[in-house]
Write a structure and sequence with these properties.
The chain is an alpha/beta fold and 192 residues long. The protein has one domain: fumarase (Alpha-Beta Barrel). 26% of the residues lie in helices and 25% in strands. The longest helix is centred in the N-terminal third of the chain and has 12 residues. The two termini are 25 Å apart.
């Protein structure tokens, strides 16, 4: 259940168990620190590494993955437009990454029942970033560097550094879903 914070919660990565357990669906968050990017193609490679017992190209414990394929940066900028991509495409891969220690996921749109169950089981959070605001969100990214699979272009794994990156908690460790709460509230309020 949302606490309806007027003031966003400030968090810094890596996220601790206390960090994620203190959040509730509907909380606004300003996230700072290192965040890694990965989309569909990178997720397939990450899972292949896990299945082979190989190390991943970045640490997982307490880390956050942002589903983004940024555009090339303008001269002097660390990154181009960096808006979230639809999270559902990563659903088949997500439970294994949560089991590997990932504590936060950032994207847009709803998640499958399997992912929501895995978030509860592994004590992790799903955040939404505002879709369609990639240029504004990029202003909250202080640095960006490719750390794996440069051949994937925009979908390469990058190490980003966030400063007060604005997010909303969609799924929390208690199994709450802000999207479902919103639909239920709308239905209740629109009854004659």
């Amino acid at each position: 259940m949302s606490r309806g914070h007027d003031i966003p919660v400030r968090l810094t990565t890596p996220l601790s168990r206390w960090d994620v357990e203190s959040l509730h669906a509907g909380d606004r968050v300003l996230l700072s620190g290192v965040v890694y990017t990965a989309r569909d193609a990178a997720h397939a490679r990450l899972i292949a590494l896990l299945e082979q017992g190989q190390p991943l190209p970045f640490p997982t414990e307490g880390q956050v993955i942002y589903y983004v394929g940024p555009t090339p940066p303008r001269p002097g900028a660390p990154i181009g437009s960096a808006g979230p991509t639809t999270s559902g495409r990563m659903d088949p891969y997500t439970p294994a990454l949560l089991a590997a220690g990932i504590k936060g996921l950032i994207g847009k749109g709803g998640r499958s029942a399997e992912v929501r169950d895995a978030l509860v089981k592994h004590r992790a959070i799903y955040f939404a970033a505002t879709g369609g605001a990639g240029a504004l969100l990029a202003q909250k990214i202080r640095s960006a560097a490719v750390v794996a699979w440069e051949d994937l272009g925009a979908e390469a794994v990058r190490r980003l550094v966030f400063e007060d990156f604005p997010l909303v908690v969609i799924n929390d460790v208690l199994g709450n879903d802000l999207y479902e709460e919103g639909v239920a509230r709308y239905r209740a309020e629109s009854r004659p």
